[in-house]
Amino acid sequence: MTPEEALSEILQACKLKLGDLKGALFDAEFALHEEDNNVKAFFRQGQAHMALHDIDAAVESFKNALVLEPNDVSSYDHIRGKIKIV
């Protein structure tokens, strides 16, 4: 992980905590543009979508995270009861 990627992850987490949901979503999408297999960016993107009440987009983000890291309990917990894992 590059220093820029680490900083991006920290910024996403901070923006989520501070309630800057659109900023967190923007940063997650930027991170995914740079590295399309970034599990943390998919997870934080899902969290931002959930907080913005865009459940379908949130589920899609968490599903993408689970495809990359199938044993990630946090992503599964966020979508439990919302989708059927195939």
TrEMBL record:
Keyword Repeat tagged: yes
Keywords, sorted A to Z: Isomerase, Repeat, TPR repeat
Single GO molecular function: isomerase activity
Xref: SUPFAM superfamilies: TPR-like (SSF48452)
Signal peptide stretch: none
Gene3D superfamilies linked: Tetratricopeptide repeat domain
TPR-type repeats, residues: 39-72
InterPro entries to which the protein is assigned, alphabetical: AIP/AIPL1/TTC9, TPR-like_helical_dom_sf, TPR_rpt
Keyword Nucleotide-binding: no
SMART domains (UniProt xref): TPR
Protein name, entry field: Peptidyl-prolyl cis-trans isomerase CYP40
Organism: Arachis duranensis (Wild peanut)
Gene name in the database record: LOC107479886
